[in-house]
Amino acid sequence: MSRLHESATVEFKRQLNDAAKREIVAFANSEGGDLYIGIDDDGIPVGVDDPDAVMGGVGDMIRNAIRPDLTAYTSIECESMEDDAGVMRNIVHVTVLRGVKRPYYLSGKGMRPTGVFIRHGVSAVPASEERIRQMIRDDDVTAFDASVSIDQDLTFNEANAIFARQQVPWGKPQQRSLGLINSDGLYTNAAALISDQCRHTIKCAVYQGNSKARFLARQEFQGSLLQQLDDVCRYLELNNPIRSDIVGLYRNDTYAYPPAALREALLNAVVHRDYDYSGPTLVSIYADRIDFVSLGGLVKGITLTDLTNGISQPRNTVLANTFYRLDLMESYGSGIPKIMEEYAGNSESPIIRITPSAFTLSLPRLDGTGDGGNPIHANPTDGPDISDWFTASNPFPSGHAIQEKGNVQIAVLNGYPTGKGVGTLALEPTAHATSHIDGGTGTGGTGRQHTGASDTQRLHVHPIAAPIGTPECNAFNAANECIQSIQHIGGAHLGVDPKHPRRHLPAGNPATSGNQQESSGIRTAQTRARRQHHAHG
């Protein structure tokens, strides 16, 4: 008879023992294989005395000692083989297919190298942690934070304290509902991130000047991700100086960075980063800005334009839900718009830089430019120059300018259109409006100019910071009332080609000739406002 030989997919055992479990796990984690019980290492059948008992023992091993459930990917049979003497022997043949929920592991050892085995040549060997992670990435279609954690020996001392401080229930049922424990009773990666054993860190550094040429201070924060957030938040508070301005009897305190913007930037960097990367989240504090750098680019399917418009797809849904339960997050997609609101009306704007594997959000320092987080020219004695607030060259502020340099995208988050100075010239569609200004399209998507009551557009000019009754305020109101008197304001009313909002129409063009009176009224109000402003400025 021809003898069988052990290989990467064939293993012999003279009798059933605990080593058989490792062989089954190794086959399931590799390319599958066949385990023969009752054949010695030389390939000679020696048989088993009680095939039924052996088959039952193998079944118990598969059902009770191996996780995840491998029953559907195994079969157990009794076969007869002839030995060298021509005697028929009973052999138990176990067929193991490659599993689809790798890594498989011994339930008593857990998902660590001592419990996870792979096939290497003719032997079953422990899998390295990196190999285990690779199997999880390859076979688990779920997100990282919802996948099973390699480390199951987790403690939650820091998380317990924070959940208690927030008065949020924190028991096994809540952990299951949040997705921190999966259906098999195993901790997920989200649980590992908020555990005391979290392997990811946040590194903060303070630099001299506007480059990384010289450190002034640096610190790395470890432990539960929740505790890291608390610690980094305090670190940022210490590096967010306050400037005090005395105006009359009153003192006005302003921060170098809007605290709410710092909070949102930090949460964004932690919640939406890609934790498949082992590197730290970086917070770099320069003389003129703070950079928040998180690993991983944008989530697939989301563009930078989507992001600046408040559209978000969480990369780590389980982690985001946990933060939401702790009132750390309010809703998906609100972080970037909140940051934009905090910087609205200032001369400096946040900047986003995106590469395929990194996301950088830069918050500029405000007190160095005299903004202090407040609108420019807030002092009524130093009124704004409103001469170009109503210019037809660009009457409606454009959207977020996105630059592309190779595989790097850059967006300047200049707030919700803020115009110049403390006044805001913003186009706001009325209810049910379908027309889009600045090169957009209507519901038809053809770029044609829509008309009719449903397409009415209105200009709103936000008040300037000047006391009521002053010449500056009266001049501003006169211009505002003139605009409000126009019932339908389209591109043509301001001398702009409706199909190309940034293109001027020539004098006498039919699109503008019928509206000269309204345009003249606007110009007259502007001229009067400018004259009164300069006379009293």
Helix and strand topology:
Elements: E1 10-13, H1 19-29, E2 33-37, H2 51-64, E3 66-67, E4 74-82, E5 88-96, E6 105-106, E7 117-120, E8 123-126, H3 129-139, H4 157-165, H5 172-178, H6 189-194, E9 202-207, E10 215-221, H7 225-238, E11 242-247, E12 250-255, H8 259-271, E13 281-285, E14 289-295, H9 304-308, H10 317-325, H11 335-343, E15 351-355, E16 358-364, E17 402-405, E18 408-412, E19 425-429, E20 457-461, H12 471-484, H13 510-513, H14 516-536
Parallel strand pairs: 1-2, 9-13
Antiparallel strand pairs: 2-5, 3-6, 4-5, 7-8, 9-10, 11-12, 13-14, 14-16, 15-16, 15-18, 17-18, 19-20
Helix pairs in contact: 7-8, 8-11, 12-14
Descriptive account of the structure:
By secondary structure, the protein is an alpha+beta fold. It has helices at residues 19-29, 51-64, 129-139, 157-165, 172-178, 189-194, 225-238, 259-271, 304-308, 317-325, 335-343, 471-484, 510-513, 516-536; strands at residues 10-13, 33-37, 66-67, 74-82, 88-96, 105-106, 117-120, 123-126, 202-207, 215-221, 242-247, 250-255, 281-285, 289-295, 351-355, 358-364, 402-405, 408-412, 425-429, 457-461. It is elongated. Residues 369-399 and 415-537 have low confidence and may be disordered.
